[in-house]
Amino acid sequence: MYAQLVETGVKRVKSLEEMSPEERNFQEKIDAEIKIEAKNWMPEAYRQTLIRQISQHAHSEIVGMLPEGNWVTRAPSLKRKLQLMAKIQDEAGHGLYLYSAMETLGADRDEEIAKLHSGKAKYSSIFNYPTLSWADMGAVGWLVDGAAIVNQVVLQRTSYGPYSRAMVRICKEESFHQRQGYEILLTMMRHGTQAQRDMVQDAINRLWWPSLMMFGPSDEHSPNSAQSMAWKIKRQTNDELRQRFIDQTVPQLELLGCTAPDPELKWNAERGHYDFGEIQWDEFYEVIKGNGPCNQERVATRRKAIEDGAWVREAAVAYARKQQNKNAA
Ligand code: FAQ
């Protein structure tokens, strides 16, 4: 079993016998569903795993604003523009809760953001695809937020208290995002022209597979899953969550009157799940290595935003200093 895990790059989980007394106590707490809080003792690897996952999650929320930001000025009506702006602002808020949760682990926000800007840090692969038509705003809300919710609903029960509490609020907002996205598509399909219906199908064709990739590599190729499951950072595996997403999304796809770009997608009554085709993992690994269609553009946009905002930060610091001096005088 161990040899098999090493071969596939999956990190090995220590047995109880191999743990130090502190580690064993920690694991017993986890097994008893007691939340770990910032000041509690935790193995260094647990802390580092959380910093890695929460920072990537926060970066995803922030970079995730960009594909949708692309359509704010071209939204088809005032109502749609307001909805889209509200959604994008929610994503910024999610990024901020998550950076705060990450800081409770002793990580430095500026350092982690610098890793994003140097292209070192990962963020969700999905945000490296372009948004080419208004229908993409519907498809991002429905599929991307839909996939994010499936993952995040389970993370509400993650073992680290501050992360789990951030997830509760984030999930409430994501579910509004998913509905507004689906409603955009439903309106285009039911009341739109043939050209608008074609746009919807085209958006689904382009975003379907990248949405399935959001759940990460299949379980046998996921190096972090076994340990993260043992620590209850992750409560379900990448493949379990991907299957749940497909099972709940296909009926919605049918209600829209659209199809998925997967000829192998079909209900399997014996398994009680939809079967689906092979994911193009080569494409996924290229995207997370930085070679997706929009990686460079996304990172450059974030870098520019930080540079352009320098004067605001400097002014805020100068004002705070002035107030401090005034209070001290
Ligand atoms: N993209 O061993 P695993 C959103 C990396 S929020 C890029 O399975 P793990 C809201 C992974 O980091 C979307 N990289 O890793 C929104 C690891 O690399 P490392 C974000 C990926 O951590 C909507 C390596 O591959 N959600 O969308 C991806 O156990 C609309 C091996 O993978 C979260 O971040 C990927 N898709 O499981 C915003 C949720 N998948 O670090 C705006 C929290 C894997 O070892 C608009 N995160 N990798 O070098 C998680 O649940 C987990 O981190 C997984 C990956 C499930 C993503």
UniProtKB/TrEMBL annotation:
Keyword annotations of the record: Oxidoreductase
UniProt xrefs under InterPro entries: Aromatic_CoA_ox/epox (IPR052703), Ferritin-like (IPR012347), Ferritin-like_SF (IPR009078), PaaA (IPR011881), PaaA_PaaC (IPR007814)
Enzyme Commission identifier(s): 1.14.13.149
Highest taxon of the lineage: Bacteria
Gene Ontology BP annotations: phenylacetate catabolic process
Assigned GO CC terms: cytosol
Enzyme class: oxidoreductase
GO molecular function terms listed in the Swiss-Prot or TrEMBL record: phenylacetyl-CoA 1,2-epoxidase activity
Pfam families: PaaA_PaaC
NCBIfam families: PA_CoA_Oxy1
Protein name from the UniProt record: 1,2-phenylacetyl-CoA epoxidase subunit A
Species: Pseudomonas putida
Lineage start: Bacteria, Pseudomonadati, Pseudomonadota, Gammaproteobacteria, Pseudomonadales
Gene transcribed to yield this protein: paaG
